[in-house]
Write the structure tokens for this entry.
Amino acid sequence: MQHTSERHDLNNDPTERQKALLLAEDWRFHAIDYVGTGLGMLASTEKASFAKDRIVSFGLPSAPALFLNLAIASYRHRATINLDDAFIQHPPPQGTWPEEHGNLFDYFQSTMAEIVMAFSAIEAFANESIPSGYTYLFTQQDGKVVPLTGLELERRVSLDEKLSSLLPAVHSINSPKGRKPWERYRKLKALRDRLTHLKSVDRKASGPEDQTIWGSLLEARNENFALSAFTIIGAFPELVQQRRWYILAGHLLKRT
């Protein structure tokens, strides 16, 4: 196995052995493909205290793939929870409530994890898709336009703006804004923002007239937020349609 920090010329006609080697590798690599008579990958080298401060090397993981895989796992878990069975109709005036809250809280927990991880997958994809050294003219709230690059660009420009304006401009791709992938993304983002910034109503007893984040999560039972993340990332086909992690994530989502 070759470890490299640069892209190599790929074989036009890989051998059956190479195909078998690649098939056996995890799908969450940032970049791995046929090189020479074997495989090549982008690698990371780190100093690890657990290895008695030795230098260790490993294939570079794809952050979007890791986050997306966590979202898929969370979706699969919550999909096994039957909310209809969780709530039991009791005689008046008790109403409908769980005899045991474990399954319900598992549902909330898994949905929260799915939403946060799905959003993180999109954010990681957007940031890694900005070319190194690219300068973006950012309009501040006071109307002043300032050039941003590197970490400052990633930090100050919102994900909405990166997806709707920055990435389409950089890569000459149509903006996903206004299309179905954008609608799914905005629904995901709204819930993620609610989870990140819980309101007072979410932390006290409330009536049906005040919907809490918990009510919103119950209403989202039929949503697949992992798929929402995959869909908005796929709205930039030129950036991902040849990426192994994206292709195999699609196969994994088809089985959810």
Observations:
- Residues 2-59 form one domain.
- The first strand starts at residue 2 and ends at 4.
- The chain is about 50% helix and 15% strand.
